[in-house]
# Entry
Amino acid sequence: MVQTLTVLGLESSCDDTAAAVVRQAQGRRAEILSSIVHGQTELHSAYGGVVPEIAARAHAEKLDICVQQALDTAGLALHNLDAVAVTAGPGLIGGVISGVMCAKGICAATGLPLIGVNHLAGHALTPRLTDGVAFPYLMLLVSGGHCQYLIAHGPEQFSRLGGTIDDAPGEAFDKTARLLGLLQPGGPSVEAEARNGDPSRFRFPRPLLDRPGCDLSFSGLKTALMRMRDQIVEEKGGLTRQDRADLCAGFQQAVVDTLAEKTRRALAVYLESKPAEPVVSVAGGVAANSAIRSALETICDEAGTKFTAPPHELCTDNAAMIAYAGLERFRQGAHDGLDLTARPRWPLDQTSPAMLGGGRKGAKA
Ligand code: KG4
Ligand code: ZN
# Structure
């Protein structure tokens, strides 16, 4: 096996078209040589959510441009690569197919090996890319389409301790923003409003805390928010800036408290297995939220466990995580053929029963 590997990654499973080049010398920390992301927020803004057909067409138009930019930024050509990794699921199927077809085209033309990557594995392996974290570690994967606690044992070995039974937290942030007339994506808008709000003015529920285990539920929060908003509008004829900020702060605090308690439980389960160097990591778009990061950090400090969180640009969807996850698979000797299929659903832990509910990216993986 070659000592130093250079992998091109492609990502197109939702509303970001991305390409990146990652290089790793064996036994050394990986290096991101380029990471290009073309977001589609403005294409979907009129519709209040991601429109799968619009997303797929935009990916098909932008993927080759992204690839060229990623190679140019890295100062490399296709013949300098060792493999091409691509998100092969889970996600919006039209977008995933666009990425897989683009990667297959490159591999068919160059003879480079093709590596299909699970998008969730990309997020879940990010702490190894950014901080060189060793297996096994506890991962809270929290994004617009997913929310789950995983113990990462290896590049393709994950056991799920629990997850959301309905909405993902990012989805709840996005819906909250929509209900309050804030910009999409909702996470950053709601977080910014919440900074000026009083989290104790409105009492939001803390779903599923009364039940044992690590499963979560977030769909009730938006219903509660809608009721509170409608009541203020009925009583006062509209929302003031302060009302909006207090609603955002109350909503965010409910998400923080729920994730904090479930993280305590997941951490207890993880520590039972007596890992040599215990580490808790968070990944996915919602991991960019400062209130959530600092709550998780406090829990880990209290437990004497190391905590890592990736920089913001590696929390949200990107192709560096896909290139890196592909690189880990490739180093283990795995790759796919040109018959690689795009999968709308692809659970990371194949042994656990499927989670309920439908997310922004379709059914929960
Ligand atoms: O991982 P990601 O880019 O795409 C998915 O795989 O879903 O996550 C996007 C989600 C969106 O729902 C967005 O609102 C949320 O991450 N997000 C945040 C923040 N930044 C992005 N949620 C809360 N606070 C943030 N600062
Ligand atoms: Zn994602």
